[in-house]
Amino acid sequence: MEKIHLSTNKKKARTENAALIFEDEASFRQDSTLHATWSRRGQQPEVPVTGRRESVKIFGCVDILSSKFLYQKDTVFNAKTYICFLEKIARNFHRQRLYYIQDNASYHKDAEVWAWFSDNRYWFTVYNLPPYSPQDNAAEPLWKYTRKVGTHNRYFEDKIEIIGVLDKVFKKIQKDPDLIKGYLKPFQ
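Given the sequence above, the corresponding structure tokens read:
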């Protein structure tokens, strides 16, 4: 694990035609999340709730140079599911040189994960963000965008419905990377 110098790595990534990827995880709960909205005076909007507290776990990463976004749904965050996501990244970037930036989740430090990184070190350079620094992770604003356009002020009858909404938002981002370029600007 190397200390992160983002400006140096951005230059390296551009000159090497490499990817500069930020990874993060997020949980999206089935119960309603209320957020700022408009309504007629005296008519407060109501969003029904199911009382269930199920959630959908998402691994996600974004290349800040191309705005390419990848995600994977899972039932739990652990070393095994994280390695599956790393394999997905490897397939999608097809052995392109990667500068990979992750946070300090406990399973990121698992021996199996670091063995995977070691096996792929010739094309995969890994950096950990400083502890407690979500403001430095370019994937964080994508979760904010997803909640804003997909899950806030919405009722989800069941887990399948929220998965459908998340898939729709994520596929839209993948088809039209310009949707998220503004969110990535501070990191470019």
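The chain has a mean pLDDT of 87. Try to locate this feature in the token string yourself.
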